Amino acid sequence: MSTENTSEFENLREKFGRFRVLIIGRANAGKTTILRGICNTTENPEIYDGKGNKIDPSQVEGTMGRGIHNIENEFIFRSNDKFVFHDSQGFEAGREDEFLTMKKFIADRAKTTFLKKRLHAIWYCISMDKLDRAIQRSEEMFFGECDPGNIPVVVLFTKFDALLAVALGKLEPADRRLPLQERLLKAKPRIEGIFNTADVWGRLSLMTYPPKSCVRIEAMHKSNEGCNGLMESTATVLGEEVLQMLLVSAQERNLALCIKHATQR
User: Is the overall model pTM greater than 0.85, yes or no?
Assistant: First the structure.
């Protein structure tokens, strides 16, 4: 990356701070795995309160994948401190008070004049390992009642490879007796049809406050492909070029995204 770009990115971070994301999703949706993949680490994040004071992790109930948190808390990974993450506060379990708290948080962070505290994107995780329960009351509440304003919402269809097991179960009886590799070859082409039949994206798109885009996340423990796709999808829906640049500066290891952004300027 050129010295000129580096200086430009440093100026952006001085003005806007870190790229700030609210991540939402039910327990076991893969939130922690995704954030570790984005920040290229296997470690847990450091946690800070809304005033920047570091919090002892043992004093926080649950983890990012399980439990209830103060939505104002900031999660920062030492491997990449150019991102700051907030975790939703448990409304996915149908808690009305946490939903109202989250709505207020989004509204406040969308209009704050303190640029370093502004929320830049929302990632909503929906796991595909229970396709028939992909859209529940929590999704209806969020996409039907929560106006994100100018903050783009990207849906992450996590554990997308779980649909392979569904496809295997739909094979003809004769095909189920084939060797595993042959069964996989016959099952994989069915995945797209299974996903389309469930019409999860279509149903979300018809809600009052639909997401801006979606990305499929699979085999996150083996590859950064899903992370790269998430970064590109997020960059695409950001409404301001300056925020695209802020995201690119935070994700310098994603060479493809950096090159794409540079050639479009």
Answer: yes
